[in-house]
Amino acid sequence: MAEAVVSFVLESVRDFTIQEAEFLSGVSRQVEAAQTELEFMQGFLKDADARQGQDTRVQICVAKIRDAAYDLEDIIETYGLKVVSKKKRGLRNVLKRFACIFKEGVHLHQIGGEIENITTKISSLRSSLQSYNIKEIRDRDSSGGESSLQLHERLRRSYSHVVERDVVGLESNVEELVMHLVKDENRHQVVSVWGMGGLGKTTLARKVYHHKKVRQHFHSFAWVCVSQRFQVRNVWEGILIELISATWEQKQEIKDMTDDEIAKKLFLVLQKMRCLVILDDIWRINTWNLLEIAFPNVETESTILLTTRNQAVASLANRNAYIHQPQPLNENESWELLEKKAIPARAEIDLGMYTKKKDLGMKMLKHCKGLPLAIIVLAGVLARKNSIREWVRVYENVREYINRGIGHEKEYEGVSRVLALSYDDLPYYLKPCFLYLSHYPEDSEFLVSELTKLWVAEGLIFSRQQRHSLGETMEDIARDWLSELVERCLVQVGTRGSIGTIKGCRIHDLVRDMCLLRAKEESFLHIKYSLQENTFSVATDATQLVKIRRLAIYLDKNADMLISSRDVTNGHVRSLLFFGLEEWFPKSEKGLLSPLKDFKVLRVLKVEGLHARRVELPSEIGNMVHLRFLSVRRSNIKTFPPSLGNLVCLQTLDFRVSSYNGMVIPNVMKKMKQLRHLYLSSQFRAKGKLELSTLGHLQTLYNLSIEYCDLKDVGRLTNLRKLKIELSSSLQNLEEILESTGSTLNHIRSLFVHNYSETNSGEEQAMQIVSSCPGIYKLVLVGPIAELPKEPHNYRNLTKLEMRGCDLKEDQMGTLEKLPNLTTLHLGHKSFHENTKILVFSEGGFPSLELLDVCFMHKITEWRIEEGAMPRLCRLEIKYCKGLTTIPDGLRYLTNLRELTIIGMHRKLHRRIQEEGEDFYKIQHVPSLVIEERFD
């Protein structure tokens, strides 16, 4: 991963020197020389990264290169930021200015010397790599590390004649694929089997390949395992020889053909005959693009079936493509597979021993998460253990056994190595992004919106191929890179937003284990589970002491401090992320966060959920001039230190603290001109107005208070996309202000209006603000609003709407249900006026609605759903509406409804919807019913 580190550092230094060229003039020669040396180094790092596992000397050298690159970036940015800060402040008088000249000259000489020393070190390390026979590879898109993959590819190469015994859980998958292969009408020329490593794609393809119906349907067959080092000609030759069952003479004839002749011959064979070709284990789109020249692009009875870990390969631009994604094994299937492999002679053991082994086996299978490869590896270990005591020992270290296996045999190779192939195949820019995921807790779902901000703050995202100039933000690029990780099956999609965007993600436990292992090997990130260890430097496998750059700390209730201040290596940490703070209460709260001042080059600081009674951010936090991301969300922070205004590099500031004691926020954020995302505490106070007009990069602004902020400033925030605005009082000249900010408000995509004011003017102004943002996709309304905009068809982008306390009149439902593309609707407490007793969803209303959530609407006593309303509704939640004693009869018309949740309703309603109840017929067609609690 040194290639990635050097590339990111080079990009960062270039950007910084362009922005601050005037202030770096004193060391420009040294900086330029360092950049040149990094550019020379880039060419050798692809091969060096791939060879680390083979040569300890290379591993040590690569670790030193990573450290040197980071040190160079830290020195240049630290010096530049200090000079910028001094010169922008100016000096008070001429005498003071002359007194500082000598000191600045000495400091400049020292910095220049440090940069030269690092440059010399990098040059020396490059020479060392060359002496180790490391080759220069300039084409970044070419696949690297071929030599390190040769043995593994031979071990994992698949063959058509090998038929696995003890296959479990593939029956339905096989039948589905066979159906798509043998059908005559609407058939598919390409069938793709896509999924993560170890999911059984090759096994599934092999079962299909030998299936009786498939053998009867096709006339000719070919199976090719496409390695990462494939040669196009060799693949074509292999397919052609198998399809025509070539004789020795024909094989010689094929050998003498040119590439064009082989491609044409194969094309004609596939076009004239009914052939099935299996391309097992295709990794890249380019592989397919090179191979498909020999495959017919016209109507043919032949089919190509390919297996891949990459969704982009599976989703090839072929109008007749079909994608199949196998699912993990369920609990019963997992045990069946383990039993077949690990207890083959079940009849020879007594029932008591079998029961104990099954109990232990089921516990161990929880760590396999239904991944067939993991189960087979575990079974391979257990098959050689006969006694219960031996099984207990495996259980005590089950994750280690699963990840490492028991030997070099292909069948029992560790899961970690197989999954790591997906990591090895990543382009250099995605590797650090993936390793960054290792800090998230096991089984947790992480928010994409937070992750992308962290990646950007860390400098892991850069605008490749001038995408940034096309209007895409760094966060847009980060989301695209996350999608690439999803496509490669290294990240799983958790929840999606109302317009289908990925909102939450997770990683498979075994992928996380591999991620943690690689992060440790690459010295990328260190995780501390106990503060009993006070050193923040660790030894790598190459016995080389390296600096910790990223640190995740997991606190438990026994920890006696948040962070140690005694370790001198704190000065190298770039990311500091805390977990478990919600359940941790310190023995002493005095100076709890004071040790943070020792982290000189920190870029990311995440201290969320700290519930100590009195927590203060130290004023020294203003010295962390490198800080890009600062979040103290849900922490009991009492003050907003004015020194935060010194953080001129800050991109994300999340100050949604849990203390609502009227915190006073000083007018310092105007200095943070790089801010992209600003989250203020709710109901904060300020002395005078906060100036925000200088924040031209701002994309997110939460809790904009009309009382303490000038709404006119919003007009200058041309990049603003998300706005949460709080109305506590009437605003003078609102129409004039909205007219002047119209160009900005037109670009708002997510709008949250919270109306604290109880006056009629406040209700009118809330509606005026909503009417001024016609491009919104998401709208949240809290508090009274006069009425909804009268032309709902103007809001064609609106897909998600949440309302609470809006006190709308009953006739406003007619406006709501005309929103053409609304897919998600949440109706909360007092969405409608308390005099509204009946809800009516009319015929044809809510044509696009897919999710409806109705909760805490206590005054509603009757709900009517006419036939033809909500034709696409698939999920409905009715919660704590105690006035309802029966469910709508119209639910029976909702034929697409798949999930119905009813919680906290009246006992009478609950009784009526039981299977024997009089209203059950209304919901009996819904596949998933969740019914909980009830009011008396």
Mind explaining what this structure looks like?
The protein is α/β, with parallel strands linked by helices. Helices cover 36% and strands 14% of the residues. The strands form five sheets. It has a 17-stranded parallel beta sheet, sandwiched between helices. Helix 1 (2-19) packs parallel to helix 3 (56-89), helix 6 (171-182) packs across helix 7 (201-209) and helix 14 (331-342) runs parallel beside helix 16 (372-382). 40% of the residues are buried. Mean pLDDT is 82; it is low at 90-103, 140-156, 407-412 and 532-544.
Give the overall pLDDT as a whole number: 82
Q: CATH class of the largest domain, anyone? A: Alpha Beta
State the shape.
globular
Question: Which architecture name of the largest domain does CATH use?
Answer: 3-Layer(aba) Sandwich
The CATH homology group name of the largest domain: P-loop containing nucleotide triphosphate hydrolases
CATH topology grouping of the largest domain: Rossmann fold
Number of strands: 29
Helix run count:
28
Structural class: alpha/beta
Percentage of residues assigned to helices: 25-40%
Most strands sheet = 17 strands, parallel
- Uncertain parts: 90-103, 140-156, 407-412, 532-544
Distance between the termini: 62 Å
- Please tell me how large the radius of gyration is: 32 Å
Beta-strand percentage range: 5-15%
Compose a concise summary of this entry.
By secondary structure, the protein is an alpha/beta fold. 36% of the residues lie in helices and 14% in strands.
